[in-house]
Every structure is written in structure tokens, then in C-alpha cells.
Structure to design on (335 residues):
């Protein structure tokens, strides 16, 4: 069977979607899987051996891009089934325009008419108990209707291919010592400040790790350059790599690290899929909903009465779920 999967728009979600691709391959070794997704994600998709081809989506955030979607859809031939992971109306258009005979996705946004199998999404929580996971949602769309009703999945752990040659090249260009053990710190979280441990704590953690003999790599995108500088500035052995690496470089660098300290963010999932040991700091979100999909993870939380709230900012302004996590506690998790 030949699949077109419409992928998600967040880094972490794209990594978790690999569990679906692995499951489809387990069900059918001959399955061909192409993934339609934002252009930035193609380097990550290229590290997923289950995927045949990554196709750049013709839309940007907030754009419908009907003409561009129609033109691309006309070039997509021979697919038996489309699996649409996002819930947006526009994400269902290309499989519909392409005439793919089976089109599975979640109902909502008035798009059920574009799908041949519109499924009702399970609730995230029942009271204070988390009852669903993002990865279950993705795997559920790849299951049969009967399998979706059962809603029980053996989740394979995402595993991105490591390019050792690229790793050595990147370390050389950045002036990183390949012999000194490294720990990465990822201070960003695109979701918002309710996921972010205080920068002064990251800085204090980096200082203590250097004292223990580690080099510390502060990693993130262009938006994290300034926070990275606040952590690294004036600290020998702490390198601010934010904005200096491509996403695929990050995969390879993580594979070299003794530990990766991250919030519940896209880079946490990338680190897990690179094979790194992950120290995952949770604030407003929950590891029951978006856990790092690896056996090599240590979860650090400070539960308070109002968490998990899944809010981008703290409605009370105290951020106690994050400020209550001590530097010493995270340091111990790095041992």
C-alpha cells in the first residue's frame, strides 16, 4: 500500500509521528510512505528510514494557498491511502484534490466532507487524569476502525539516523572538543514561558556541570540566541550554539552527548530519537500526554495544585511548577 501522510507543524510532533511510520511498516513491510509537511521538517524526515520521500507543503501558517495546493495535488499519483495528522481544514485539501481513495483524519473545522473516514478524537483528560497521548492519536489514525475503537497501542520508539561524518564536520566547524564529555542544555520552548525553567537556573546548572568536567552545549534556534548568551556568557567550557546549527546537525550533536537537558519541547523529542539520555523538565504540560519516547529519560517535575494546566503562560503569574525545581535536583538527574 502507498501512503501519503500529512505531517504536523511542530518539531516534537513530527518526531513522534515516526512511531506511526514505524507501525505502518511493521504492519506491511512493502508499505511506501511519503510525508507532506512543512519545508523545515524535511531534514528530520530524511533521517527516518521508514519514509520514502518528504514533500514540502505549499502553505505557510495562516495561509490557505488554494492554487498552490491544487497544483501540487495534481502531481501526486498512485496513493492508496492518506492519513491526515493535523486537524486543520487546509491540511485535508491536498489528499482530497489528489483523489486519494481513502482519507483518514480527525473530524473538526467542517472538514469531514473532505475525508472518507473522519474520526472523533479522544478527550485529553478526564478531570485531573490525562487519558490520551499525542502519539496515540497519530497511531490511532493509522489503525483500522476496529483498532481505533480499542485504542490500545504498542508504541515503537522513534529513532533518527545519525550521520557520523556530519557530526565530526560540525564539531570541527564549531570548535568543540570531541574527547571531552558533553551535556546539552536546551533552554527554549516555542510553546511559551509556562514550559521554561528559569534562565538563571540553566546558567547555574551549566556552571556546576563544567566544574564536574563536562563541556556544556547550549542548543536551540535563532530565537534562543539571546537566552543562550545569558547562560554561556563569561563561562569557560559553556558554548552557545543557538542559531549556529541546522536541525539535522542537532540530531547528530545530541547523539554525542552524555545527557540532554530540555523542557517539554521539540528538541526534547529530537534528543530522545537521537539516542541521547534525556533529562526532561515539565512545567505546565504533562509527561503523561507528551512523554519523551525513550527508555533513557528522567522526568523532572514539581507538581502543584494547578498543574498540568497546558497554558502558555501562568494564569497566576507565579510559575511555581517550574521555579519549584531546584538546580541541585536537575544536576542529580544528570549524573
Amino acid at each position: 500500500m502507498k501512503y501519503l501522510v500529512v505531517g504536523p507543524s511542530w518539531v516534537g510532533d513530527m518526531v513522534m509521528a515516526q512511531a506511526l511510520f514505524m507501525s505502518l511498516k511493521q504492519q506491511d513491510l512493502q508499505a511506501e510512505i511519503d510525508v507532506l509537511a512543512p519545508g523545515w521538517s524535511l531534514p528530520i524526515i530524511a533521517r527516518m528510514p521508514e519514509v520514502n520521500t518528504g514533500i514540502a507543503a505549499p502553505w505557510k501558517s495562516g495561509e490557505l494557498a488554494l492554487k498552490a495546493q491544487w497544483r501540487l495535488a495534481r502531481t501526486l499519483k498512485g496513493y492508496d491511502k492518506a492519513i491526515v495528522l493535523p486537524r486543520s481544514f487546509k491540511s485535508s485539501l491536498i489528499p482530497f484534490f489528489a483523489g486519494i481513495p481513502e482519507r483518514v483524519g480527525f473530524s473538526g473545522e467542517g472538514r469531514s466532507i473532505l475525508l472518507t473516514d473522519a474520526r472523533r478524537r479522544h478527550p485529553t483528560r478526564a478531570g485531573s487524569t490525562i487519558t490520551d497521548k499525542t502519539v496515540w492519536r497519530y497511531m490511532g489514525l493509522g489503525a483500522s476502525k476496529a483498532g481505533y475503537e480499542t485504542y490500545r497501542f504498542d508504541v515503537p520508539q522513534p529513532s533518527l539516523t545519525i550521520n557520523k561524518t556530519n557530526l565530526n564536520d560540525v564539531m570541527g566547524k564549531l570548535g568543540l572538543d570531541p574527547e571531552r564529555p558533553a551535556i546539552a542544555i536546551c533552554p527554549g520552548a516555542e510553546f511559551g514561558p509556562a514550559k521554561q525553567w528559569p534562565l538563571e537556573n540553566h546558567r547555574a546548572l551549566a556552571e556546576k556541570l563544567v566544574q564536574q568536567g563536562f563541556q556544556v552545549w547550549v542548543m536551540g534556534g535563532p530565537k534562543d540566541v539571546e537566552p543562550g548568551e545569558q547562560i554561556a556568557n563569561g563561562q569557560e567550557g559553556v558554548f552557545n550554539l543557538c542559531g549556529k546549527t541546522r536541525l539535522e546537525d542537532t540530531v547528530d550533536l545530541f547523539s554525542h552527548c552524555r545527557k540532554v537537558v530540555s523542557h517539554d519541547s521539540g528538541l526534547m523529542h529530537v534528543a530522545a530519537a537521537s539516542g541521547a539520555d534525556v533529562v526532561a523538565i515539565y512545567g505546565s504540560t504533562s509527561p503523561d500526554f507528551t512523554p519523551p519516547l525513550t527508555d533513557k529519560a528522567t522526568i523532572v517535575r514539581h507538581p502543584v495544585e494547578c498543574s498540568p494546566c497546558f497554558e502558555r503562560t501562568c494564569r497566576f503569574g507565579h510559575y511555581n511548577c517550574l521555579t519549584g525545581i531546584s538546580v541541585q535536583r536537575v544536576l542529580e538527574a544528570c549524573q
In short: The chain has a mean pLDDT of 96.
